[in-house]
Write the C-alpha coordinates for this entry.
Amino acid sequence: MRGDDPALGVHLRAWCRSEGHGFGVDPDGGYDVVRGDAEQLRWAGAERAGDPSPQGVVRRPPAHWGLAARGALVEAGGPAPGFDIADRDVVWADLAPRLYAHAAAAQWDPATAVDWTIPEPLTDEVEAAVVQVMTYLVENEQAALVIPARLLARVHPHFREVLQLLAVQAADEARHMEVFTRRALMTGGQLGTSSAGGRESLNSLLNEADFSLASFLLSVLGEGSFLSLLGFLDEHAPDPVTRQVTRLARVDEARHVAFGVAHLEHEGALDPTLRGRLRAAIERRHDALVDTAGLNADVFDSLVVLAAGEWTPEAIARGHAAVQRLHATMDDGRRQRLHRLGFPDDEATELSALHTRNFM
Protein backbone atom coordinates (compact mmCIF):
# COMPACT_ATOMS: atom_id res chain seq x y z
CA MET A 1 0.00 0.00 0.00
CA ARG A 2 1.38 3.34 -0.99
CA GLY A 3 0.30 6.93 -0.31
CA ASP A 4 1.52 10.50 0.00
CA ASP A 5 0.36 11.16 3.56
CA PRO A 6 3.41 11.10 5.85
CA ALA A 7 1.24 9.60 8.65
CA LEU A 8 -0.01 6.71 6.50
CA GLY A 9 2.33 4.17 8.10
CA VAL A 10 1.35 5.18 11.64
CA HIS A 11 -2.37 4.94 11.00
CA LEU A 12 -2.13 1.82 8.88
CA ARG A 13 -0.10 -0.01 11.53
CA ALA A 14 -2.68 0.87 14.20
CA TRP A 15 -5.59 -0.20 12.01
CA CYS A 16 -3.94 -3.53 11.19
CA ARG A 17 -3.36 -4.19 14.88
CA SER A 18 -7.00 -3.47 15.75
CA GLU A 19 -8.31 -5.67 12.93
CA GLY A 20 -5.86 -8.53 13.43
CA HIS A 21 -3.99 -8.09 10.12
CA GLY A 22 -0.24 -8.32 9.59
CA PHE A 23 1.75 -5.11 8.84
CA GLY A 24 5.20 -4.58 7.39
CA VAL A 25 7.30 -1.96 5.59
CA ASP A 26 7.93 -2.84 1.98
CA PRO A 27 11.68 -2.44 1.19
CA ASP A 28 10.67 -1.19 -2.23
CA GLY A 29 8.49 1.52 -0.73
CA GLY A 30 5.08 1.60 0.82
CA TYR A 31 3.63 -0.96 3.25
CA ASP A 32 2.56 -4.60 3.16
CA VAL A 33 -0.76 -5.64 4.73
CA VAL A 34 -1.33 -9.38 5.29
CA ARG A 35 -4.91 -10.43 5.88
CA GLY A 36 -5.35 -11.97 9.34
CA ASP A 37 -7.77 -14.71 10.37
CA ALA A 38 -9.56 -12.72 13.10
CA GLU A 39 -12.72 -12.37 11.00
CA GLN A 40 -12.93 -16.12 10.39
CA LEU A 41 -12.16 -16.88 14.03
CA ARG A 42 -14.92 -14.52 15.14
CA TRP A 43 -17.52 -16.94 13.78
CA ALA A 44 -15.93 -20.02 15.30
CA GLY A 45 -18.64 -21.68 17.38
CA ALA A 46 -21.46 -19.82 15.62
CA GLU A 47 -24.66 -21.78 15.00
CA ARG A 48 -27.88 -21.45 13.03
CA ALA A 49 -30.91 -20.56 15.14
CA GLY A 50 -33.04 -23.25 13.57
CA ASP A 51 -34.69 -22.60 10.21
CA PRO A 52 -36.75 -19.54 9.24
CA SER A 53 -39.80 -21.58 8.29
CA PRO A 54 -42.32 -22.83 10.89
CA GLN A 55 -41.03 -26.32 10.16
CA GLY A 56 -37.63 -25.17 11.45
CA VAL A 57 -38.85 -24.45 14.97
CA VAL A 58 -36.78 -26.39 17.49
CA ARG A 59 -38.28 -27.73 20.67
CA ARG A 60 -36.05 -25.98 23.20
CA PRO A 61 -34.15 -23.01 21.71
CA PRO A 62 -31.17 -22.06 23.88
CA ALA A 63 -31.35 -18.81 25.79
CA HIS A 64 -28.31 -17.37 23.98
CA TRP A 65 -30.22 -17.35 20.68
CA GLY A 66 -32.13 -14.57 22.40
CA LEU A 67 -33.47 -11.98 19.99
CA ALA A 68 -31.69 -13.42 16.93
CA ALA A 69 -34.01 -14.00 13.98
CA ARG A 70 -34.99 -17.64 13.58
CA GLY A 71 -32.57 -19.10 11.04
CA ALA A 72 -29.84 -16.45 11.58
CA LEU A 73 -26.17 -17.40 12.08
CA VAL A 74 -25.68 -16.60 15.77
CA GLU A 75 -22.24 -15.51 16.92
CA ALA A 76 -21.10 -17.19 20.14
CA GLY A 77 -20.72 -15.18 23.29
CA GLY A 78 -23.82 -12.99 23.20
CA PRO A 79 -26.29 -12.32 26.01
CA ALA A 80 -28.79 -14.93 27.19
CA PRO A 81 -32.07 -13.11 27.94
CA GLY A 82 -34.33 -14.76 30.46
CA PHE A 83 -37.34 -15.82 28.38
CA ASP A 84 -38.76 -18.44 30.72
CA ILE A 85 -41.35 -19.85 28.28
CA ALA A 86 -38.91 -21.61 25.99
CA ASP A 87 -40.45 -24.99 25.17
CA ARG A 88 -42.19 -25.38 21.82
CA ASP A 89 -44.84 -27.70 23.17
CA VAL A 90 -45.82 -25.24 25.89
CA VAL A 91 -46.74 -22.49 23.40
CA TRP A 92 -46.95 -23.86 19.88
CA ALA A 93 -49.84 -24.66 17.56
CA ASP A 94 -49.38 -25.67 13.94
CA LEU A 95 -52.26 -23.33 13.17
CA ALA A 96 -50.36 -20.30 14.51
CA PRO A 97 -48.79 -19.12 11.20
CA ARG A 98 -52.14 -19.22 9.38
CA LEU A 99 -53.97 -17.56 12.26
CA TYR A 100 -51.41 -14.75 12.32
CA ALA A 101 -51.78 -14.23 8.57
CA HIS A 102 -55.55 -14.04 9.02
CA ALA A 103 -55.19 -11.67 11.97
CA ALA A 104 -52.87 -9.34 10.09
CA ALA A 105 -55.24 -9.20 7.12
CA ALA A 106 -58.35 -8.70 9.28
CA GLN A 107 -57.26 -5.61 11.22
CA TRP A 108 -59.86 -2.85 11.14
CA ASP A 109 -59.81 0.85 11.93
CA PRO A 110 -62.39 1.99 14.52
CA ALA A 111 -62.59 5.38 12.81
CA THR A 112 -63.73 3.96 9.49
CA ALA A 113 -65.05 0.47 10.15
CA VAL A 114 -67.92 1.81 12.27
CA ASP A 115 -70.58 4.34 11.25
CA TRP A 116 -70.65 6.38 14.46
CA THR A 117 -74.14 7.79 14.05
CA ILE A 118 -77.31 6.70 15.78
CA PRO A 119 -80.38 7.49 13.66
CA GLU A 120 -82.75 8.07 16.60
CA PRO A 121 -82.13 8.47 20.35
CA LEU A 122 -82.90 5.39 22.44
CA THR A 123 -85.14 5.50 25.47
CA ASP A 124 -83.33 6.38 28.69
CA GLU A 125 -83.69 2.84 30.04
CA VAL A 126 -82.30 1.16 26.93
CA GLU A 127 -79.45 3.67 26.54
CA ALA A 128 -78.48 3.12 30.19
CA ALA A 129 -78.47 -0.63 29.56
CA VAL A 130 -76.15 -0.20 26.57
CA VAL A 131 -73.80 2.00 28.61
CA GLN A 132 -73.70 -0.55 31.45
CA VAL A 133 -72.94 -3.45 29.13
CA MET A 134 -70.25 -1.45 27.34
CA THR A 135 -68.68 -0.57 30.70
CA TYR A 136 -68.59 -4.25 31.57
CA LEU A 137 -67.08 -5.16 28.20
CA VAL A 138 -64.29 -2.58 28.58
CA GLU A 139 -63.40 -4.01 31.99
CA ASN A 140 -63.16 -7.52 30.59
CA GLU A 141 -61.24 -6.45 27.50
CA GLN A 142 -58.66 -4.78 29.71
CA ALA A 143 -58.01 -8.12 31.40
CA ALA A 144 -57.90 -9.80 28.00
CA LEU A 145 -55.25 -7.28 26.91
CA VAL A 146 -53.04 -7.53 29.97
CA ILE A 147 -52.78 -11.34 29.94
CA PRO A 148 -51.38 -11.87 26.41
CA ALA A 149 -49.16 -8.80 26.85
CA ARG A 150 -47.64 -10.34 29.98
CA LEU A 151 -47.15 -13.71 28.29
CA LEU A 152 -45.70 -12.06 25.20
CA ALA A 153 -42.76 -10.71 27.19
CA ARG A 154 -41.93 -14.20 28.53
CA VAL A 155 -42.07 -16.27 25.32
CA HIS A 156 -38.76 -17.05 23.58
CA PRO A 157 -38.68 -15.04 20.30
CA HIS A 158 -37.75 -18.22 18.43
CA PHE A 159 -41.52 -18.94 18.48
CA ARG A 160 -42.07 -15.92 16.28
CA GLU A 161 -45.58 -16.71 15.10
CA VAL A 162 -46.80 -17.12 18.67
CA LEU A 163 -45.36 -13.72 19.60
CA GLN A 164 -47.00 -12.17 16.55
CA LEU A 165 -50.36 -13.69 17.45
CA LEU A 166 -50.15 -12.51 21.06
CA ALA A 167 -49.18 -9.03 19.89
CA VAL A 168 -52.14 -8.84 17.51
CA GLN A 169 -54.42 -10.22 20.22
CA ALA A 170 -53.35 -7.42 22.54
CA ALA A 171 -53.93 -4.91 19.72
CA ASP A 172 -57.38 -6.41 19.11
CA GLU A 173 -58.30 -5.92 22.75
CA ALA A 174 -57.01 -2.35 22.70
CA ARG A 175 -59.31 -1.66 19.75
CA HIS A 176 -62.25 -3.29 21.51
CA MET A 177 -61.64 -1.11 24.57
CA GLU A 178 -61.71 1.94 22.31
CA VAL A 179 -64.96 1.14 20.48
CA PHE A 180 -66.84 -0.02 23.57
CA THR A 181 -65.78 3.09 25.48
CA ARG A 182 -66.70 5.33 22.57
CA ARG A 183 -70.14 3.73 22.26
CA ALA A 184 -70.76 4.06 26.00
CA LEU A 185 -69.99 7.79 25.92
CA MET A 186 -71.77 8.62 22.66
CA THR A 187 -74.74 10.26 24.31
CA GLY A 188 -72.68 12.26 26.77
CA GLY A 189 -73.47 10.37 29.96
CA GLN A 190 -71.21 8.65 32.46
CA LEU A 191 -69.98 5.06 32.42
CA GLY A 192 -71.82 2.36 34.34
CA THR A 193 -70.80 0.39 37.41
CA SER A 194 -67.91 -1.97 38.10
CA SER A 195 -68.58 -4.63 40.74
CA ALA A 196 -66.01 -6.00 43.18
CA GLY A 197 -67.06 -9.54 42.29
CA GLY A 198 -66.49 -8.97 38.60
CA ARG A 199 -63.05 -7.53 39.17
CA GLU A 200 -62.21 -10.38 41.56
CA SER A 201 -63.10 -12.87 38.84
CA LEU A 202 -60.87 -11.10 36.32
CA ASN A 203 -58.08 -10.78 38.84
CA SER A 204 -58.04 -14.56 39.19
CA LEU A 205 -57.12 -14.70 35.51
CA LEU A 206 -54.23 -12.31 36.01
CA ASN A 207 -52.83 -14.55 38.74
CA GLU A 208 -52.41 -17.55 36.41
CA ALA A 209 -48.73 -17.65 35.39
CA ASP A 210 -48.73 -20.91 33.42
CA PHE A 211 -49.01 -20.21 29.66
CA SER A 212 -51.30 -23.12 28.85
CA LEU A 213 -53.55 -22.65 31.86
CA ALA A 214 -53.82 -18.91 31.26
CA SER A 215 -54.70 -19.56 27.62
CA PHE A 216 -57.27 -22.16 28.68
CA LEU A 217 -59.01 -19.99 31.26
CA LEU A 218 -58.92 -16.80 29.20
CA SER A 219 -59.27 -17.83 25.58
CA VAL A 220 -61.02 -21.20 25.62
CA LEU A 221 -63.46 -20.68 28.49
CA GLY A 222 -63.62 -16.89 28.95
CA GLU A 223 -63.46 -15.56 25.42
CA GLY A 224 -65.32 -18.65 24.28
CA SER A 225 -68.22 -17.59 26.52
CA PHE A 226 -67.87 -14.05 25.21
CA LEU A 227 -68.50 -15.31 21.67
CA SER A 228 -72.00 -16.18 22.84
CA LEU A 229 -72.36 -12.87 24.67
CA LEU A 230 -71.27 -10.81 21.67
CA GLY A 231 -73.59 -12.83 19.44
CA PHE A 232 -76.41 -12.04 21.89
CA LEU A 233 -75.58 -8.33 21.76
CA ASP A 234 -75.42 -8.42 17.98
CA GLU A 235 -78.89 -9.98 17.90
CA HIS A 236 -80.45 -7.65 20.47
CA ALA A 237 -78.52 -4.44 19.79
CA PRO A 238 -80.94 -1.48 19.89
CA ASP A 239 -78.86 0.62 17.51
CA PRO A 240 -76.50 0.04 14.58
CA VAL A 241 -73.38 1.26 16.39
CA THR A 242 -73.78 -1.27 19.19
CA ARG A 243 -74.39 -3.97 16.62
CA GLN A 244 -71.33 -3.06 14.55
CA VAL A 245 -68.84 -2.87 17.43
CA THR A 246 -69.96 -6.17 18.96
CA ARG A 247 -69.94 -7.88 15.57
CA LEU A 248 -66.41 -6.69 14.77
CA ALA A 249 -65.13 -7.71 18.20
CA ARG A 250 -66.69 -11.15 17.88
CA VAL A 251 -64.68 -11.92 14.74
CA ASP A 252 -61.45 -11.08 16.59
CA GLU A 253 -62.44 -13.08 19.65
CA ALA A 254 -63.16 -16.14 17.52
CA ARG A 255 -59.53 -16.05 16.35
CA HIS A 256 -58.28 -15.88 19.96
CA VAL A 257 -60.41 -18.88 20.88
CA ALA A 258 -59.16 -20.80 17.83
CA PHE A 259 -55.53 -20.33 18.88
CA GLY A 260 -56.24 -21.35 22.46
CA VAL A 261 -57.98 -24.54 21.39
CA ALA A 262 -55.35 -25.37 18.74
CA HIS A 263 -52.50 -24.86 21.19
CA LEU A 264 -54.08 -27.04 23.86
CA GLU A 265 -54.87 -29.74 21.30
CA HIS A 266 -51.18 -29.67 20.31
CA GLU A 267 -49.98 -29.89 23.90
CA GLY A 268 -52.62 -32.42 24.90
CA ALA A 269 -51.44 -34.80 22.18
CA LEU A 270 -47.96 -34.77 23.74
CA ASP A 271 -48.69 -34.41 27.44
CA PRO A 272 -51.12 -36.94 28.99
CA THR A 273 -51.20 -34.92 32.23
CA LEU A 274 -52.56 -31.78 30.58
CA ARG A 275 -56.26 -32.53 31.06
CA GLY A 276 -55.68 -33.10 34.77
CA ARG A 277 -53.97 -29.73 35.04
CA LEU A 278 -56.80 -28.03 33.12
CA ARG A 279 -59.37 -29.56 35.43
CA ALA A 280 -57.39 -28.46 38.48
CA ALA A 281 -57.20 -24.91 37.10
CA ILE A 282 -60.99 -24.72 36.74
CA GLU A 283 -61.56 -26.11 40.23
CA ARG A 284 -58.94 -23.84 41.78
CA ARG A 285 -60.50 -20.76 40.20
CA HIS A 286 -64.01 -21.87 41.18
CA ASP A 287 -62.95 -22.36 44.80
CA ALA A 288 -61.29 -18.94 44.84
CA LEU A 289 -64.46 -17.26 43.56
CA VAL A 290 -67.13 -19.31 45.30
CA ASP A 291 -67.88 -16.58 47.85
CA THR A 292 -67.97 -13.73 45.33
CA ALA A 293 -71.11 -12.30 43.78
CA GLY A 294 -70.20 -13.27 40.21
CA LEU A 295 -71.79 -11.25 37.44
CA ASN A 296 -72.55 -7.64 38.28
CA ALA A 297 -76.33 -7.46 38.88
CA ASP A 298 -76.42 -4.23 36.86
CA VAL A 299 -74.99 -6.10 33.89
CA PHE A 300 -77.53 -8.89 34.20
CA ASP A 301 -80.41 -6.40 34.37
CA SER A 302 -79.03 -4.51 31.39
CA LEU A 303 -78.85 -7.65 29.28
CA VAL A 304 -82.49 -8.33 30.16
CA VAL A 305 -83.48 -4.79 29.14
CA LEU A 306 -81.57 -5.01 25.86
CA ALA A 307 -83.26 -8.27 24.97
CA ALA A 308 -86.62 -6.85 26.06
CA GLY A 309 -86.26 -3.66 24.03
CA GLU A 310 -88.82 -1.82 26.14
CA TRP A 311 -89.86 -1.35 29.74
CA THR A 312 -93.07 -3.40 29.93
CA PRO A 313 -93.69 -6.52 32.04
CA GLU A 314 -94.25 -8.67 28.96
CA ALA A 315 -91.09 -7.45 27.28
CA ILE A 316 -89.02 -7.86 30.44
CA ALA A 317 -90.23 -11.45 30.73
CA ARG A 318 -89.09 -12.07 27.16
CA GLY A 319 -85.75 -10.42 27.92
CA HIS A 320 -85.24 -12.55 30.99
CA ALA A 321 -85.94 -15.69 29.01
CA ALA A 322 -83.46 -14.57 26.35
CA VAL A 323 -80.73 -14.11 28.97
CA GLN A 324 -81.44 -17.59 30.32
CA ARG A 325 -80.99 -18.92 26.79
CA LEU A 326 -77.71 -16.99 26.60
CA HIS A 327 -76.48 -18.84 29.69
CA ALA A 328 -77.45 -22.14 28.07
CA THR A 329 -75.67 -21.19 24.84
CA MET A 330 -72.51 -20.28 26.74
CA ASP A 331 -72.63 -23.59 28.60
CA ASP A 332 -73.13 -25.52 25.38
CA GLY A 333 -70.14 -23.80 23.75
CA ARG A 334 -67.89 -24.48 26.73
CA ARG A 335 -68.90 -28.15 26.81
CA GLN A 336 -68.16 -28.50 23.10
CA ARG A 337 -64.69 -26.98 23.46
CA LEU A 338 -63.94 -29.10 26.53
CA HIS A 339 -65.06 -32.18 24.63
CA ARG A 340 -62.74 -31.21 21.78
CA LEU A 341 -59.86 -31.11 24.26
CA GLY A 342 -60.59 -34.70 25.23
CA PHE A 343 -62.93 -34.41 28.18
CA PRO A 344 -65.79 -36.94 28.18
CA ASP A 345 -69.31 -35.47 28.05
CA ASP A 346 -70.10 -35.89 31.74
CA GLU A 347 -66.83 -34.29 32.83
CA ALA A 348 -67.22 -31.46 30.31
CA THR A 349 -70.68 -30.75 31.73
CA GLU A 350 -69.33 -30.77 35.28
CA LEU A 351 -66.43 -28.46 34.50
CA SER A 352 -68.50 -26.05 32.42
CA ALA A 353 -70.79 -25.58 35.40
CA LEU A 354 -67.80 -24.53 37.53
CA HIS A 355 -66.87 -21.69 35.17
CA THR A 356 -67.07 -18.18 36.63
CA ARG A 357 -70.51 -16.56 36.68
CA ASN A 358 -68.83 -13.41 35.41
CA PHE A 359 -68.62 -15.07 31.96
CA MET A 360 -64.92 -14.20 31.20
